[in-house]
Design a protein that fits this description.
This is Protein containing molybdenum-pterin binding domain. The chain is mostly beta strands. The protein has a single domain (about 5-55), classed as Beta Barrel (OB fold (Dihydrolipoamide Acetyltransferase, E2P)). The chain has one helix spanning about 40-45, and strands spanning about 5-20, 20-30, 35-40, 55-60. A 4-stranded antiparallel sheet has the order 3-2-1-4.
Length: about 70
C-alpha cells in the first residue's frame, strides 16, 4: 500500500463498537496508548476488520486540535 499521507500509525484492533451506520474502531498503538476512529459499517465489512487485525491509522488533515483543562 502506497499513499501520500505521512502520518501513519501502526496498531492492532482491540475492539469494534458497531452501530447502525458507523463503527468505532479502537487500536492499540503500543506503549499503553490507544487510538480510535469512526468509520462506516460498510468500510468495516469491505475491509473485513476484526479484533486482532494489524492495521494502519492514516491521518490526513490540515488541522490538529489540542485541548487542555
Amino acid at each position: 500500500m502506497k499513499i501520500s499521507a505521512r502520518n501513519q500509525i501502526k496498531g492492532v484492533i482491540t475492539e469494534i463498537k458497531s452501530g447502525v451506520v458507523t463503527a468505532r474502531v479502537i487500536l492499540d498503538i503500543g506503549g499503553g496508548n490507544h487510538l480510535s476512529s469512526v468509520i462506516t459499517m460498510e468500510s468495516v465489512q469491505e475491509l473485513n476488520l476484526k479484533p486482532g487485525d494489524e492495521v494502519y491509522a492514516i491521518i490526513k488533515s490540515t488541522e490538529v486540535m489540542i485541548g487542555k483543562e
